[in-house]
Amino acid sequence: MRDLCKFLSGAVLLSAGLASPLAHASEKLKIGYNNWVGSAGVFVAQEKGFFKQAGVDVEFVPFKGPSDAIPPLVSGHIDLALTTADNVVLVNARSGTDLKIIYATDTSNGADAVVSKKGLTSLADLKGKTVAVTQNEVNELLLLKGLEKAGMKPGDIKSVNMDPDSAGAAFVAGKVDAAVTWEPWISQAVAGGGKVVFSSAQVPNLILDVVTVNPATSKTKAKAIAAFLAAVDKGTAFVRSNPDEAMPLVAKRLEVKPGEVKDMLVGVKLYDMAGNAKLLHGPVAAQTLDNISVFYSSRKTIPKTLKGSDMVDASFVQLH
Predict the structure, then answer these.
(1) Which residues are in the Solute-binding protein family 3/N-terminal domain (predicted)?
(2) Residue 90 backbone dihedrals phi, psi, to 5 degrees
(3) Tens-place pLDDT, residues 176-194
(4) What count of other Cβ atoms lies within 10 Å of the Cβ of residue 151?
(5) In what order do the strands lie in the sheet with 80-84?
(6) Residue in 286, 299, 284, 307 with CA at minimum distance from that of residue 93
(7) Does 154 sit behind a cis peptide bond, omega within 30 degrees of 0 on the bond before it?
């Protein structure tokens, strides 16, 4: 789904901006993002004018996928990126950058899964079967976590390298026995008689969507960043308290129907400021990054293992 229904096709300029002591109206932020349902709080904040009320002028720059915003973030062309935690690990390990995670918008809570064809009702049934998965990326880590829980080894299956969309399509077409994919392919697979045998809901916070920043920017634009995150928190609260009004607003950004947004949100867990306090001030976010780093290092995807806590900056998250 992160490449199918998350993105806008052209460059979109969105000015927003709330009167708050956190920021002055002249302060600006350029945000790189992809059209992912987990950013519902961000989209609602923009549509409801929460950024404007916070006194921060926001320019949103759309990218095709969560990794595409990383190069312009590193080069300084944007101030913040809405991306995934694994991308932060990859770029920091490969290029020696020091990007920091300052907030989590959501975590996949079933929106990524292992689906199997009819008659294969558990991971154990996949022994000797062909499984489509994006090798050396975080959804392979999801598969490996599932195999581990089932008492299986990677060599027990026949892994075929495909991106999540291609894996979903191949599964629906009957070309593979199982696939590691995301929505809407999961729903299509189940509708066709397939079964979810393992999902991200069983490994909380493994696939985490985050806000990341260069340390230099976090210092020079600290007030604007704090205002931005406060507005996002307000947007997330609105999604929860006013779903009937929020669903059409998110649907507008995703270019889908409100009912589809409601269905998509079932597969993710949105995080507010209180949730981020537990994630970032506690050990969870750092442990997630540690798991990803160890996985990539074992696969030789990155040259060295990084320490998760070194990639977390909790200074913008209020303790509750």
Answers:
(1) 28-242
(2) -60, -50
(3) 999 999 988 998 999 999 9
(4) 9
(5) 57-62, 28-33, 80-84, 208-213, 100-108, 268-270
(6) 307
(7) no
User: In the prediction, which pLDDT does 51 show?
Assistant: 97
Rounded CA separation 275/278 (Å): 5
Q: How many residues does the chain have?
A: 320
State the pLDDT confidence band at 2, using cuts at 50, 70 and 90: low
What is the edge-to-edge ordering of all strands in the sheet holding 178-182?
158-161, 130-133, 178-182, 112-116, 195-199
Give the separation between CA 320 and CA 278, rounded to whole angstroms.
9
Domains and CATH numbers, the chain: 28-107+206-311 (3.40.190.10), 112-202 (3.40.190.10)
Q: What Cα–Cα distance (Å) separates residue 62 from each residue in 14, 59, 303? A: 10, 10, 30
| Partners of 182 in the β-ladder | 112
Nearest 10 degrees: Cα torsion 34, 36, 38, 41: 60
How crowded is residue 67: how many other Cβ atoms within 10 Å of its Cβ?
Answer: 18
Q: What is the pLDDT of residues 228-284, one digit of tens each?
A: 999 999 999 999 999 999 999 999 999 889 999 999 999 999 999 999 999 999 999
Six token digits for residue 293: 């780093």
Chain centroid offset of residue 149 CA:
23
Residue 135 corresponds to which tokens in the numbers above?
A: 């090798």
Q: What's the pTM value of the predicted model, to 2 decimals?
A: 0.85
